[in-house]
Amino acid sequence: MTSVSARITAVETHDIRFPTSRELDGSDAMNPDPDYSAAYVVLRTNAEDGLEGHGFAFTTGRGNDVQVAAIDALAPHLVGRDVDALCADPGSLARHLTGDSQLRWLGPEKGVMHMAVGAVVNAAWDLAAKRAHKPLWRFLADATPEWLVSQVDFRYIADVLTPGDALRLLTAGRNGSDARRERLLARGYPAYTTSPGWLGYSDEKLTRLARRAVADGFTQIKLKVGADLEDDIRRMRTARSAVGPGIRIAIDANQRWNVPEAIEWTKALSEFDPYWIEEPTSPDDILGHATVRANVTPVKVATGEHVQNRVVFKQLLQAGAIDFLQIDATRVGGVNENLAILLLAAKFGVPVCPHAGGVGLCELVQHLSMFDYVALSGTTENRVIEFVDHLHEHFVTPVLIRDGHYQAPAAAGFSAEMHPGTLTAYAYPNGTFWTADRALTPETSS
């Protein structure tokens, strides 16, 4: 009797939103009222193991319905796909999705459509890692360099990173990987926290949370800046007084400035010894970032959370525009494209300090940095993962921070799965939370 292979049977989507703007959590100079949201996708199968693939794209409220619709548009490429083949080669799915000529027109490989591709591709990786009974970081770190190279799309980046380059980097990365894996399991991966620094917080709250961060073992915090210079000077003075001289304070303008303004503003804050200035101008302005970097030293320049694809990252690196490259787990086209970006950073010798926070970004990106440490860059020097202490309770396997370090996930998968109760409560607009909220405050509901 011939066995029937398991197939993807459904692509289930959810518009999940949280009312974070009410406490000003996540507030910055460009995003004063973000409601952290996830366009959430579940790949269901008819496999006997009952496993599912979970993924999402992070957004901030209005427009999450557009992001969900973009994911729904990809469903015909998924339903009926062979599960074994998909998990053996997630790269084939990534290339298939980005190659849809009519949907590609909406990018290409950027914006809402590309983020939808990332959500679906990440869900496929979650399923593959679960079926291998490994957390994603270990699934990647245990893979052969040749297979990892096969997962990368080198189109548009082969002028600086060839498959041969990638193979050499990944082969070299295996040297000492067992010892690094043990160190990771024992100590974890360094983190920094943005929790004290949201723009809407009072000085009292900033001080209290900054001191707590130091007590919790963090050696770096981050403040949002860019709305008002005198206000930023006061807040930086407050933060520096709270943490003392030995703690790094990064600052983040969230794309607020023109290039000359970015230089002037950063220099005005230099007396407080900012470690880096993040997103000083448009994320698409490669030469602008290079100009800022040349003029604000010794303050370093970081960017990446809104960089749309591996091609823009390539140019930022070619132009010497950044000191720190910040990957985002859901902005680009999923794990495959982030592998390409990690390889580009390794080729140029630029440290990767991922963007996190939001809904589930901490849960996802920890896996990518841990793989990078164990099997590619081989170091955590000058590398930290952002941590924001919001909404982790909604995940089945939330991040664990100990003494300022991410602890390595042990559960199989990509740590992307939300509790069923969260999907029921926070589905927008008719989840139980939002329904009750409208009944209580119909004039102010989001």
What can you tell me about this protein's structure?
With 446 residues, the protein is of the alpha/beta class. It has a domain of 245 residues: TIM Barrel (Alpha-Beta Barrel), CATH 3.20.20. It contains 18 helices and 12 strands. The strands form 2 sheets. Strands 4, 5, 6, 7, 8, 9, 10, 11 and 12 form a 9-stranded mixed β-sheet that branches. A hairpin with a 2-residue loop joins strand 11 and strand 12. Helix 9 packs antiparallel against helix 16 and helix 12 packs parallel to helix 13. The radius of gyration is 21 Å and the shape is globular. The termini are far apart. The model has no long low-confidence stretch (mean pLDDT 95). It catalyses: L-fuconate = 2-dehydro-3-deoxy-L-fuconate + H2O.
Q: What labels describe this entry?
A:
446 residues; alpha/beta; TIM Barrel; nine-stranded mixed sheet; three-stranded antiparallel sheet; 18 helices; 12 strands; 43% helix
Provide a short characterization of the protein structure.
The protein has 446 residues and is α/β, with parallel strands linked by helices. The protein has a domain at 177-421: TIM Barrel (Alpha-Beta Barrel).
C-alpha Rg (nearest Å): 21 Å
* Overall residue-averaged pLDDT value: 95
Distance between the termini: 56 Å
Strand content: 5-15%
**Tally of DSSP β-strands:** 12
Q: What is the makeup of the main sheet?
A: 9 strands, mixed
> What kind of assembly state do the chains in view correspond to?
single chain
Look up the CATH topology of the domain at 177-421. Answer: TIM Barrel
GO molecular function: L-fuconate dehydratase activity; magnesium ion binding
InterPro entries: Enolase-like_C_sf, Enolase-like_N, Enolase_C-like, L-fuconate_dehydratase, Mandel_Rmase/mucon_lact_enz_CS, Mandelate_racemase_C, Mandelate_racemase_N_dom, RHMD-like
Organism: Streptomyces griseicoloratus
Keywords: Lyase, Magnesium, Metal-binding
